[in-house]
């Protein structure tokens, strides 16, 4: 990648500047960032903490109810038949290192499961795979420590090589960088029993993206929420779910 960066550097830099100047900027989704989705019965709440960048903040849809966090909580409440308390800590533009600093300033509620979505801004800020994974590990350990959570679900990087917002060859270059970060992220997660990885490579249809050609559209957020909710259910052992429900 260093060779491509050197050879294509002036063109990539010019295209990046033009993209930043002309890109359509969408607001983060409006609505509450904490809440409880009630379910019948006297079981204890399942507590979720969502942390991330613009995608976790819901850029691409109008309201948090159509974004990732709320939809995951709603699916789990329905599937598990228990109330779900959720908290969202997210901000557009954060890379993984900045997310750690941002989280340190926030009051975090207790959680059972952490869900994160980061990495695109690590690509655009040209951070190395080593920096990215090291900072991600620090962030996850901090979140688990502060919230008491036992499990984490980490979303991978999207297929940036398909995003229509970027011209070629910038689109190809960003896609290659995203792929490298994603590979190293999966390698770090693979041996860990309490952390699961969710691939975003399925999000390959530009027609389903938001109006800016960069963020997910409503149908993609819905499909994404289904995948993460299923991953949470599979990650948490049945005994753990039963013990939490009995508390």
TrEMBL record:
InterPro entries (UniProt xref): SGNH_hydro, SGNH_hydro_sf
Domain SGNH hydrolase-type esterase: 50-222
Pfam families given in the database record: Lipase_GDSL_2
Any one GO MF annotation of this record: hydrolase activity, acting on ester bonds
Superkingdom, taxonomy of origin: Bacteria
Protein name as annotated: Lysophospholipase L1-like esterase
Organism in which the protein naturally occurs: Tunturiibacter lichenicola
């Amino acid at each position: 990648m260093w060779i491509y960066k050197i050879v294509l550097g002036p063109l990539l830099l010019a295209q990046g500047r033009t993209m930043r100047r002309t890109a359509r900027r969408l607001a983060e989704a409006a609505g509450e960032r904490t809440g409880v989705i009630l379910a019948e019965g006297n079981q204890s709440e399942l507590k979720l903490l969502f942390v991330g960048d613009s995608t976790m903040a819901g850029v691409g849809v109008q309201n948090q109810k159509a974004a990732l966090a709320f939809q995951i909580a709603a699916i789990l409440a329905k599937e598990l038949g228990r109330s779900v308390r959720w908290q969202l800590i997210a901000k557009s533009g954060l890379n993984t290192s900045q997310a750690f600093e941002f989280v340190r300033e926030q009051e975090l509620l207790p959680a059972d499961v952490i869900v994160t979505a980061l990495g695109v801004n690590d690509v655009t800020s040209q951070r190395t795979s080593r920096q990215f994974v090291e900072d991600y590990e620090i962030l996850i350990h901090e979140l688990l420590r502060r919230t008491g959570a036992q499990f984490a679900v980490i979303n991978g990087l999207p297929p940036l090589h398909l995003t229509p917002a970027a011209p070629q060859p910038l689109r190809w270059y960003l896609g290659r960088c995203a792929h490298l970060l994603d590979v190293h992220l999966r390698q770090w997660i693979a041996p860990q029993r309490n952390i699961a990885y969710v691939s975003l490579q399925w999000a390959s249809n530009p027609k389903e993206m938001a109006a800016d050609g960069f963020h997910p559209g409503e149908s993609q957020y819905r499909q994404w929420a289904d995948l993460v909710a299923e991953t949470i259910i599979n990650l948490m052992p049945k005994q753990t779910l039963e013990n939490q429900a009995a508390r």
